[in-house]
Amino acid sequence: MNNIIETDISKNNWDKLNEAISEHVQKDVLQNHINQETKASLNKIFLYSPYLSSVIHKFPELLIDIKSNAYDKTIDNLLLQCINKNHLQTDVSALMKDLRILKQKVSFIIAYADINNDWNLDSVTSYLTKLAETCLKLAVDYIMLSSAMLNKIKLKHGKNPSLDCGYTVIAMGKLGSKELNYSSDIDLIVLYDESKINYIGRNDTRDFCIRATQELIKIIESRTEDGYVFRTDLRLRPDPASTPIAVSIETAENYYETMGMNWERAAMIKARSVAGDISLGSDFIKYIRPFIWRRNLDLRAIKDIYAIKNQIKNQHSNNLDNSLMGHNIKLGTGGIRFIEFYAQIQQLIWGGKKPILREQQTLKALELLYNDGLISKADLDKLTSAYIYLRNLEHRLQMVEDEQTQTLPKSSDEYAKIAYFSNYNNSDDFSKELISHLKNVDNIFNKLFPDINGDANHISFTSETASPDNLELLRSLSFTNAEAVYEIIRKWQSGYPKILRTQKARDIFDELIPYILEKLSKSDNPDSALIQFDTFISKLPASEQIINLLGSSKSIIDLIIEVISTAPKLGSYLSSHPSVMDNVLSPSFFSAIPDYKTLSSELKIALENSLNLEDCLHACRNWFKGKEFQLGIQMLKGFISGIDAGKKLAEITDITIGLLLPYVRDDLRKRYGYFDNVSLALVAFGKLGSREMSFDSDLDLMFIYDMPNLDVQSNGGTSSIAPSTYFTKLVQRFSSAVTLETYEGKLWEIDMRLRPSGNAGPLATSLEGFRNYQLNEAWVWEHQALTKARVIYGNEAIKTKIETIIKSVLSRRRNNEELAQEILKMRERIAGQFTPSSILDIKYTDGGMIDIEFFVQYMILANAHQYPDKLIGNSTKDTIIELSNTGIITKEQAEVLSQTYSLLISLKALFSQTIEGKVTIDNIPEACQQKITQITKQNSFADAIVFIEKSLSTAKNICSKYY
After folding, report:
1. Read out DSSP for 178-240?
2. pLDDT tens profile 47-74
3. What pairs with residue 793 in β-bridges?
4. How many whole angstroms separate alpha carbon 217 and alpha carbon 934?
5. 8-state DSSP, 474
6. What are the residues whose beta carbons fall under 8 Å from the beta carbon of 776, sequence distance 6 or more?
């Protein structure tokens, strides 16, 4: 350091100290205590530690205490004075001030003893630990006592508030092992036992403990004009992403019994109860001993231990032959963490069978490992010497500004200061000895279990930092962003997705990862496919059944990857409703779905145990969603066409409604009774009516009832109501039942605007009202809708009556020119409201579904009076064929329109599974492009687009010739 600067710094600090002494009541005593030895020590502090300099300027009387008493006695007196003053303290401001002043004074004395080489490492860390314990104890005592005074809790021991209070603070890391750093965070886990806390407040025990912990952090960590006490870290608690800052004992015990990770076993070696209900914390640590100390290690545990070693090796690793400026002496090569984990790794392996090795402090643990023959005397000596050296250096770094740092300065001047502060005459001598220790540690650590991995094909991803081998493997599998991919897989192996919380689940999934990576690597975009797969996994609930299912069959994995790559919407449903995966294992899953009679019998059996409407709805949702999923997969794999899938979707919808509606009626009957001589029918319009459904089709429905006397009231219930009110309530209950969003999802969206008078009309209409409206009041567009009408529920009598009305309306002779004009107006109105996003917006684009359907509807209304039996009651495609059979259009035209409509139905079914929002050529996933290419039977996606454009244009031209 420049001598001029050195002199200025020293002089400035001495001036401040002399000024403080001159104003002190014991100035004469203080001046007498500043001898040559004291001046040398203080000069070193003034030169290299702004933080310690500021402390002695504020509290010069510390020099009297240091010279008059031993260091330990001086600190003990300060601790005792603070305890006596703040025992049963109820003023939080006073407590916070005293704790911060205590921290500054004790820190200075410890540093002074350390700098003068009067204390060894054990004395330094022991008293730093004792300081933290005292502060935590006083803080918890205050919180318990003040809470009792506010009538939130009742204490068992008023003069010892923390005793048996049910709230405990467990120290982890270096505080737990009594090896606290000079300027360290303190790692804490806060637990509580609801059965022990006598909470009498307005909220609940959980809320009280969370608020108490927030208060604890505020007392210890918040910065005031007097600084702070300790920085706190609560992230080592069980499942920190999902749990509050205070965790119940029961939750913590369950977590470690079922979900605890191997790295948490290593962390728990140092766990120690330090404040609050000490016995509660100690009992908890005893309870989880089987989690920490296992008599036998399974393969996964050994792999994880090896991963921990690799993590330490790869994290912040650097070449020790280069400059040490900027080197991290804790995490860098040969650092403190290497020594700590060298001991802990072996403790994890052998501590289950050898309780004597269950030591928390690093140096004592190394000694025990040597005594047991697990490390050599030479390695013990090198590791011990390095640990003491590095910890002392760590304290020098932290004394500078009271910062938690283990990184050497990056500038040569600052680096030289640390060398001088560490009692070296120059930087070269300092670097030489430091490098020697770091290399010794690195060499010994590298010899630890070189063949523990065993399985050469197993790649562990649990380390926070990927090794070059990990990244090279991922790149060899065609993943572009290897670092991002590594992080996703590390998340899986660390148990963050709910499905992978338990050790068993991680073990099963761990064996699947190589296969999953291999399958994903073969997709068009492996990185994107992995992200989609991760999204899928992240949505799965914690379920032993599901993880066993995934592990039981690689065909499930294959299917999931295909679904999420090709049909994200279907994949999203699958992850939210994983129970449908059970169906995949059925031998008949990819076989043709049975006929109506067999399907109806299936659902009836599923409904046998339904005692009420809720049971019925649950069974109907599960059955319908299972069949819908099966159809979606079969269509995706090309086993069934879009047209046939639409027919089956309509069939299972008919069956579900037919068996569900009686349950809704029975549920309504409990309150409102029934009517004699009444018939109820449900008429489907739109895609359900024409049996051309896609996987996102709404249901266009109309409820019609028929009864001879509409002036009667219901009977047999607790209330009596008129028919119109009764059937309105029935429709409302049915609509609520099928549209309710539950875990299984909702069955359908319902649209009933096609009823007489639309939204202004009653939800259910009488048969006579339906007849009068359709014959006398309905618009042309309503008659267009009627061309797809189909009775899907009702007895034969009412079904025949409705079909007769429909046939009568549709077969009426019309003025075809006026009819064409009305339909064209409606088409133009739709075109004004819905502008197609591209030619793949197949419903609204020119020549698309609307145009072909309007053409067919026009043809029915214009010609049904001649051919009622041929043109009424068929699907769009079947009607096109009948138009050709009757000679209304040519066979060539029918073939073009039929093929184009089948293509559009298939594309609509595909898009309903794969695309969110509007469909454009640019937002089609690559896997979906391939499906489009297959559907159109073309050689490329570009050719498929040309084919679709040509088909639409030809269909539009044909339609335009007739109206």
Report:
1. T---TT-EEEEEEEE-TTT-EE-SSS-HHHHHHHHHHHHHHHHH--BTTB-S-EEE-TTSSST
2. 999 999 999 999 999 998 887 788 999 9
3. 682
4. 62
5. H
6. none
Give CA–CA dist 87/94, Å, rounded: 12
Question: CA 641 to CA 630: how far, in whole Å?
Answer: 13
Q: Quote the Cα angle for 801-658-569, to 5°.
A: 125
| d(C-alpha 328, C-alpha 313), whole Å | 13
Parallel, antiparallel, or unpaired for β 167-171 and 272-276? antiparallel
Residues of the chain with pLDDT under 50: 1, 4, 299, 451-458
- Residue 28 is which amino acid? D
CB 705 within 8 A of CB 680: yes
User: Among 778, 686, 701, which Cα is nearest to 732's?
Assistant: 701
Using CA atoms, how far residue 857 sits from 452, 602, 927, in Å, is: 74, 36, 35
Of 135, 119, 115, the residue nearest 188 (C-alpha): 135
Contacts 24+ apart (CB under 8 A), 475-480: 477/517, 477/518, 477/520, 477/521, 477/526, 478/521, 478/526, 479/521, 479/526, 479/527, 479/530, 480/526, 480/527
Maximal C-alpha separation, the chain: 126
What does the DSSP 8-state code read for residue 581? G
Strand pairing partners for 596? none
Please state, as a whole number, how many other Cβ atoms lie within 10 Å of the Cβ of residue 102. Answer: 23
Question: What is the residue type of 260?
Answer: G
Neighbours of 800 (CB within 10 A): 12
Beta partners for residue 681, in sequence order: 704
Determine phi and psi for 766, rounding to 5 degrees.
-75, 160
Please state at what angle helix 503-521 crosses helix 554-566, rounded to 10 degrees.
60
Angle at 841 between CA 837 and CA 846, to 5 degrees: 95
pLDDT at position 464, please? Answer: 61
Which contiguous run of DSSP H or E holds residue 91?
none
The separation between CA 7 and the C-alpha centre of its own chain, rounded to angstroms, equals: 58
CA distances from 759 to 233, 702, 704, 752 (A): 59, 12, 15, 8
Q: Which helix (H) or strand (E) holds 302?
A: helix 299-314
Q: Is 577 helix (H, G, I), strand (E, B) or coil?
A: coil
Strands 699-706 and 764-766: parallel
- Extract the tokens encoding 480: 């572009």
Tokens of 677: 């001589």
Which single residue is written with the structure tokens 């070696």?
Answer: 269
Residue 231's CB is within 10 A of a number of other CB atoms, namely: 15
With a threshold of 0.90, does the pTM exceed it?
no
CA 691 to chain centre: 40
Q: What is the pLDDT of residue 55?
A: 95
443: tokens are: 């060499």
pLDDT, residue 390, reads: 97
